[in-house]
Amino acid sequence: MDFLLIGFAFLCGLVIKLVGFPPLLGYLLAGFLLHFLGVTPDDSLTTLADLGITLMLFTVGLKLNIRDLAKREVWAGSMSHMGIWTPVLIAVLSVIAVPFALGLDPASTALLAFALSFSSTVCIVKLLEESGEMRTRHGKLAIGVLVMQDIIAVLFLALATGKVPSLWAVGLLALPLIRPVLDVILAKAGHGELLPLAGFFLALGGYELFDLVHIKGDLGALVIGILLSSSKKATELSKALLSFKDIFLIGFFLSIGFTALPTWNMVGIALALTVLLPVKFLLFYSLFLAMKLRGRTAYLSALALANYSEFGLIVAALSVDAGWLAAEWLVILALSVSFSFIVTSVLYRNAHAVYSRYKTSLTRFERPERLSEDILEQPRDAEILVVGLGRVGKGAYVALYNLVGHRVWGMDADPVRIDRMTEHGYKAFVGDGEDADLWENLVLSTVKLVLLALPSIEDISHITTQLKHAGYSGQIAAIARYEDERQALIGRGIDKVFNFFTEAGTGFAEESLQMIDRAAR
Known about the structure:
Layout: H1 2-18, H2 23-36, H3 43-62, H4 72-97, H5 106-115, H6 121-130, H7 137-161, H8 179-189, H9 194-212, H10 217-227, H11 234-257, H12 264-274, H13 277-290, H14 295-305, H15 311-322, H16 328-349, H17 351-362, E1 384-387, H18 391-404, E2 408-412, H19 415-423, E3 428-430, H20 436-441, E4 449-452, H21 457-469, E5 475-480, H22 483-491, E6 496-499, H23 500-520
Parallel strand pairs: 1-2, 1-4, 2-3, 4-5, 5-6
Subcellular location: Membrane
Main location: membrane
Organism: Saccharospirillum salsuginis
């Protein structure tokens, strides 16, 4: 049985990837096809899915700055959207229910509208991670909204299940006091297999701790992750857990297909709900613009959030068990969630290209005022610009700084990285390389060389296109992990592409030879 699930998921994921779509769509398809063929999974699939969600929320916490949740656009945006969307959807569901003879009462209609007001944490986090946008302005905004929605979900589940947090839950307020202990645990774990094992221990420990005091366990994993977000090992731990999380989440996507077999009537209702996704997008987009966000940030965040959440399935299951909803709504919501995943996954892949093409329309309703985070700093007198200040980018920047001083500048979408660079006296500023507006407003007249130190060749290609559209005529260099990626980037017009592993070996050899030369003298 396990081999059948894994093999079918792999084949469907591979086929979908070969035709140019994200593999997660293949996993969704695999679940529905296996269910149609009469396959019945055992409890291990649910365990796998739950573990994937717990690890995902833990890694989200590792990348989350708690101060981001206090921003007006995060808490006000999420609350306002839910407050407007829910009554709108109540009206729509009341209309849909008539032709399909669903016989929804007002309470059931309100419950469904509330369930569909949430956005999918699993889908959004996976998209942002695959595109390397978790720490961008729009990525952090989307994640902040999801966290606020999770808090609301916890409150709802407490009321719906009657599980009121115990008095011992007050003790959770003391969790920040154990942060130094957690830092020591991670430091002692080293860099081998103990590090991901420590991640499992902390994520599941947070889950069990919160569950023990009758609070949704997933929130505990998120909180423990947030406590560790300032740790020096946070990034390394997140990368160590990445493959585990992705594998376990396949179980989640498969499990959606095993919810129940739909009828054509159910498919029709689910498609009608999917057609409402543009309304959800427009509402998020309008609210973000009203809060003085740039058109690009509002557009990308709203596009990522325009889907239905797996939380809707939890609400539906609880409601069916309590007799508040008819059982067919569990199937309808499963289909709606699946369809929304497909829509978001397909549209977001081309989001930056669409913005570049229609940015005049998308920025038409921007507020004239700018938030402090959206004010662009100019790299004055820069001759070299390093885009991406991760381990490779920072290493390249420091090496260049030692040669040319302040004639080299760095740029990264993560403000934390920029703060660390400027603390050491380096010249760096916050900027998202895929932002077409940024390159058009950036003064590049003195820049002779742009180094693209980014992990995604799609991002590198897109930035190269943006640079050329902005009139940049200097040299462009980039890094690639594999030879086929290097050749692809050269074919897209980049002047010089370095193979990461080859150049590391070359540098190692050259430095070693210099040691011999110095010793001989």
